[in-house]
Amino acid sequence: VQLQASGGGLVQAGGSLRLSCAASGRTLSGYAVAWFRQAPGKEREYVAGYSRSGGHTYYADSVKGRFTISRDNAKKTVYLQMNSLKPEDTAVYYCAADNSVITSQYRDYASYDYWGQGTLVTVSS
């Protein structure tokens, strides 16, 4: 499966952006799909994701209540709606997918085999 992330940009603190992760080659059915982010000088961190069944969503504590992950199966796309953005949300955001990752590994970026190219989100104060 190939993934393409888009939707990043420059936004003021308190603003919103919606990121998209479009899959090509096949559907994302049976794949855990996640968004990670990496700020300069920091490790890649988990932001939000779907379980392999698609029935469960997970969020990092730092984004709960502000970010929402959703999907459109017909469009083979997963979205990340980001509201109330903060300067500390500034990072390159990556989408990832894998069809063998288990629940305990969902938040570990090393568990995902398929990655999009990343999209830069910059939040100004």
Short recap of the structure:
This protein is mainly β.
The Rg value, from CA coordinates, equals: 13 Å
| Number of beta-strand segments | 11
- Give helix and strand order, one letter per element, not per position: EEEEEEEEEEE
Low-confidence stretches: none
Shape: globular
Mean pLDDT: 96
Helix fraction, binned, reads: under 10%
Which percent band covers the strand fraction? over 45%
Report the sheet with the most strands, covering strand number, pairing sense and barrel closure: 7 strands, mixed
Structure class:
mainly beta
Distance between the termini: 37 Å
Q: Helical stretch count?
A: 0
Keywords:
125 residues; mainly beta; 7-stranded mixed beta sheet; 49% strand; globular
Describe this structure in words.
The chain is built from no helices and eleven strands. It has strands at 2-6, 9-12, 17-24, 32-38, 45-50, 57-59, 67-72, 77-82, 91-98, 114-115, 119-124. Strands 2, 4, 5, 6, 9, 10 and 11 form a seven-stranded mixed sheet that branches. A four-stranded antiparallel sheet has the order 1-3-8-7, with no helix packed on it. A hairpin with a 6-residue loop joins strand 4 (32-38) and strand 5. The chain is globular.
